[in-house]
Amino acid sequence: MNRSCVLAACFWLMALGGLPAGPARAGDDELLGMIVELVGSPDADMRLLGLQQVREEAPGKAATRRFAALLPDLGPAVQVQLIDALGDRGDDTARPGVLAMLAVETEAVRAAALRALARIGTADDGPALARMAASGSDMEREAARGSLRRLRARGRRTPWSKRWRMRMRRCGSS
Q1: 25: left (phi over 0), alpha (psi -120 to 50) or beta
Q2: Cα–Cα distance list, 128 to 18, 83, 131 (Å)
Q3: Contact 83, 112 (CB under 8 A)
Q4: Residue 109: which of 88, 141, 140 has the closest Cα?
């Protein structure tokens, strides 16, 4: 698809207010395909437009799964942006894809995944977050500690939290 077609589709999406909510419609796959193409675009402006659609306009768990499935095929900078968008989206359907990003080599991607878990994580992620809060790089420790605090603030305290709270204090976290 050439750039002018993508731009026309983007303006059309914005004019409609994004994808229609409710049951899947025949055009949803085509619209999701356009958003996927925008997210993978080498043009930064087009990519940002696609990421906004991921955050705010493309409803449903199927859309979230499709966006999360893009993560392994993107470059690290775009992975960070998409992980942030998936976290902002708040749909825990993205959680498995985001958790997989904790194993990549790029520190910024791992930190973005840790940040996103504050919004889409569950109590099951507590031990992994605590482990990174205690032994990750500076960027990872900060992201993991912030996610642990937000998970606790959401009322998702679990039995492991007391154990790890002491460990985090020893590592300099409040």
Answers
A1: beta
A2: 35, 17, 5
A3: yes
A4: 140
Number of structural domains the chain divides into: 2
> Is the domain of 122 the same as that of 44?
no
Whether the CA torsion 125, 150, 83, 36 is positive or negative: it is positive
- Residue at 64 is within a domain: no
pLDDT tens digits, one per residue of 83-114: 999 999 999 999 999 999 999 999 999 999 99
Does one domain contain both 49 and 79? no
- Neighbouring C-beta atoms of residue 108, cutoff 10 Å: 17
Other beta carbons within 10 angstroms of residue 30's beta carbon come to: 10
Residue 69 domain-assigned? Answer: no
Domain membership of residue 45 as a residue range: 1-59
Helix extents (H) in the chain: 3-16, 28-39, 44-56, 61-68, 76-89, 95-100, 107-120, 126-135, 138-153, 160-170
If you average pLDDT over every residue of the chain, what do you get?
Answer: 83
Whether 20 and 103 map to the same domain: the answer is no
How far are the Cα atoms of 30, 38, 40, 49 from residue 45, in angstroms, in the given order? 21, 9, 11, 6
What is the pTM assigned to this prediction? 0.76
Rounded Cα gap, residues 72 and 97, in angstroms: 9
Same domain assignment for residues 49 and 108:
no
37 and 91 assigned to the same domain: no
